[in-house]
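Supplementary notes for students who missed Thursday's class. We covered one full example, reproduced here. Read the sequence, then the structure, then the short commentary at the end.
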Amino acid sequence: MTNGKTILLVDDDEDIRDLLQTYLSRAGFTVLAVADGGGFRAVMDEQGADLAILDVMLPDEDGFSLCRWVREHPRCAQVPVIMLTASSDEVDRVIGLELGADDYIGKPFSPRELQARIKALLRRAGFSEQSAVGEVLVFADWQLNTVSHRLFHRDGGEVILSGADFALLKLFLDHPQQILDRDTIANLTRGRDVMPLERIVDMGVSRLRQRLRDTGKSPQLIRTVRGAGYLLAVNVTRQRHVGI
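Structure (token representation):
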């Protein structure tokens, strides 16, 4: 999965840039390392990347604004994003997930652990590409094209999905009316187990509900099953060879 994959890293700490560039390059990745947001935007515009690693604290702008920028641009909206956060700052993690980050890792961190997170997200992205068979999944007032990853509402509105959004939605659509526990969701969409008290799955579901306009006190599409997990509470129809 590392062959030919490009990682774009932005961190103003030269030691961290050098460490990760050396370590990840030895693992077979092409690593592009920049020190600020301006450099990140320039590289992403000029050549793109298969995965981005964003430090929260940068000299010109924070990693949150860069994550938001990535998710708002169709050209790079599906690029997996890992946030580097202060290990004790849960607020940074929650904000990053709300903005569409796929995962986070706290400083100081193990390069080996970061590499494992990278490989897991790239595997997920690869499976999403390989599983595209020309289907359109129809549920409630929505249609999801599994090739283009485009999500349309019946009123004509289109929602831009990140890679994490798509993976989570596709998981629910493949298992309608079934309860999915948090560990199952995390393993199939993030490639790892969730730690005790970790909120990455809950934040991902909350973000997806926002995309699906399912944000009332009692969500109707993705329901919480207390003590068990989440359930897609509508039926799904599969259509083939329909262009949208």
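Commentary. The chain has eight helices and 13 strands. The chain has a mean pLDDT of 88. If anything here is unclear, bring it to office hours.
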